[in-house]
Amino acid sequence: MKAILVSQHGGPEVLEWRDHEIGNPGPGEVRIRHEAVGLNFIDVYFRTGLYPAPNGLPLVPGNEGAGVVTATGEGVSGFKEGDRVAYAGPIGAYAQDRIIAAEKIVRLPDNIDMDVAAGMMLKGMTAEYLLRRTHAVQPGDTILYHAAAGGVGLLVGQWAKSLGATVIGTVGSSEKAELAAAHGYDHVINYRTEDFVSRVRDITGGKGVDVVYDSVGKDTFPGSLDCLRPRGLWASFGQSSGPIEPFNIGILAQKGSLFATRPTLFTYIASRDDLVASANALFDVVSRGVVKIGINQRYPLAEAARAHADLEARQTTGTTVLTP
Fold this sequence. Notes:
The chain is of the alpha/beta class. The protein has 2 domains: 2-121 and 272-323, Alpha-Beta Complex (Quinone Oxidoreductase, Chain A, domain 1), CATH 3.90.180.10; 139-262, Rossmann fold (3-Layer(aba) Sandwich). Helices cover 29% and strands 26% of the residues. The chain is built from 10 helices and 15 strands. It has helices at residues 41-48, 114-134, 151-162, 174-181, 196-203, 223-226, 250-254, 265-268, 272-287, 304-312; strands at 2-6, 15-19, 29-38, 64-72, 84-88, 97-101, 105-107, 142-145, 166-171, 187-190, 209-214, 228-236, 259-261, 295-300, 319-323. Strands 3, 4, 5, 6, 7, 14 and 15 form a 7-stranded mixed sheet that branches. A 6-stranded parallel sheet has the order 10-9-8-11-12-13, with helices on both faces. Helix 4 (174-181) links the parallel strand 9 and strand 10. The chain is globular, with a radius of gyration of 20 Å. The N and C termini lie close together (10 Å). Residues 10-322 form the Enoyl reductase (ER) domain.
């Protein structure tokens, strides 16, 4: 079968469509034939080497996908050939087929399409843990989400609104502002034309927000802290604009006894129980239409380099899927 392989770290050009042998599933493993694979900014981090690959180079990128079980290894009892499944992590999704531990996959409900599932597992479970566990959003909360027109952002806007929050988002263009406004955001700030800190203060009457969800990193720090109410929470869960430089933790005291966390999805779904609970919560809101998943871009998996270039140039919105 074929897969995208990275033999050296670098730009999108290091993504090569090559023959790749994976063999048969071992004990506790299944083989999946992908019908679709999700594109996420974390894929860029592994490609560039910002995040080290678990098994070194060469690596097959990709952290989410959906497909059909084609073979099971010894000791697998919860899945069988023909089952529709989806997953978020571990790395290795940019392939026609893959081997994966059975404990890392979940059965996909019949009413959720494969391409929708492939593009929502990582982003959707990220939205779930941010909104339900990192800071459990309550009716009356006010939240700020950076990159509101991105894949996670469009899900967060809808989900947070359904929880009764006032939802503020930042974007980089008027087109993205319209998209965010159509996905639950009460207030959308174009950070290219407005100072987001001042606008947040205006919107909240000077009080600040309860939580800032920040996947941008360098470009939004320390401004994100200035948007928070006293004892508010800054959840820094990505760094699309580059890593945040080391800072003196005393800044949290100076700006209002703030809380800060650097969560990752894979910690929040590390146990089988947490994974299943997170996936089921996502399937529930999608099945009920509370959260709608729009696939805004599709690329052949063989053209993953083009997809990465567009993603890094911020030319994509919402969910993107790659098709083998």
